Amino acid sequence: MLGAIIGDIVGSRFEFNNHRSKDFDLFTDASFVTDDSIMTIAIAKALMEAVKASQDPEHVDQAKLADLAVRHMQEIGRKYPNCGYGGRFERWVFSSDPRPYNSFGNGAAMRVSPAGFFARDEKEAVQLAKTVTAVTHNHEEGIKGAVATAVAIYMARRGAKKEAIRQRIEDDYYILDFTIDGIRPLYVFNETCQETVPQALVCFFESESFEDAIRTAISLGGDSDTVAAITGAVAEAYYCIPPALGRRALAYLDADLRAVCDEWMRFTSG
Ligand SMILES: [Mg+2]
């Protein structure tokens, strides 16, 4: 989850001002926390509560998880009304009758990483990702973007090689017949899963380290904070995060968001 937060904060100042090179300062005074981090934290909170509330901790109650995902995305989301929501998601956050709206926006993938980090097997990664996504992004491409991201994280966490993860993604989710250098000249802002998730995954596959993954994601351009959040989540699972980078990012969170992160780190390490 922290990898997504790092990607989001690093990418925040480039979302509408793309920087198509790997040479830049990761953290500056102009960097900030956006919806990608805030919704990731909301999903982490929902998942922790769902696990604790489930009768059988081995089987997370999916209906409960869906309810908690709605509750915490709304409760936490309403405290940060100006963090960068898309129009339809913003209406959903403030709705008294929140319903899924058939979205395939990349918000599905940017927030899903806790599912991949918690899951105890790949099937559970798929199920948790579907559940927390379908409350808003119930279009099949929205679900696919979230599930592919969660599966990549799960496999990376369990020590799968990049080739194996790539093969799984190509077999089950996306054709990855491009390189970042190849698409960079024509890649523009696009907030769909279909035009964000495969690109973010290839940034990870081409990377040499956690930091290089984040820099590669920024260098692609487009919806920079979200591309980097998705890439960063998978890179965290594969490489682990250099502690100094983690500390820099956590310092951007306020006390409430930080408390959930701390709770999540205890939850997933125990
Ligand atoms: Mg954002």
Pick out its properties.
15 helices; about 270 residues; about 0% strand; single chain; mainly alpha; ADP-ribosylglycohydrolase fold; binds magnesium ion
Helix content class: 55-70%
Spell out the helices and strands N to C.
Answer: HHHHHHHHHHHHHHH
The biggest sheet amounts to: none
> Could you name the ranges where pLDDT drops below 50 across 5 or more consecutive residues?
none
State the name of the first-level CATH class. Mainly Alpha
Radius of gyration over all CA atoms, rounded:
17 Å
What gross morphology would you assign? globular
CATH topology: ADP-ribosylglycohydrolase fold
By DSSP, the count of extended strands is 0
Secondary structural class: mainly alpha
Mean pLDDT score, rounded? 97
The second-level CATH architecture is Orthogonal Bundle
How many helices? The count is 15
CATH superfamily: ADP-ribosylation/Crystallin J1
How much of the sequence is in beta strands?
under 5%
Could you please describe the fold and organization of this structure?
This protein has 270 residues and is mostly helical. It contains 15 helices and no strands. 51% of the residues are buried. The model has no long low-confidence stretch (mean pLDDT 97). The structure holds magnesium ion. The site of magnesium ion has 6 residues, from α2 and α13.
Give a summary of the structure in a few sentences.
The chain has helices at 2-12, 35-53, 62-79, 87-93, 107-110, 113-118, 122-134, 140-157, 162-172, 180-183, 197-206, 210-220, 224-239, 243-250, 255-269. Helix 7 runs antiparallel to helix 8 and helix 8 (140-157) packs antiparallel against helix 9 (162-172).
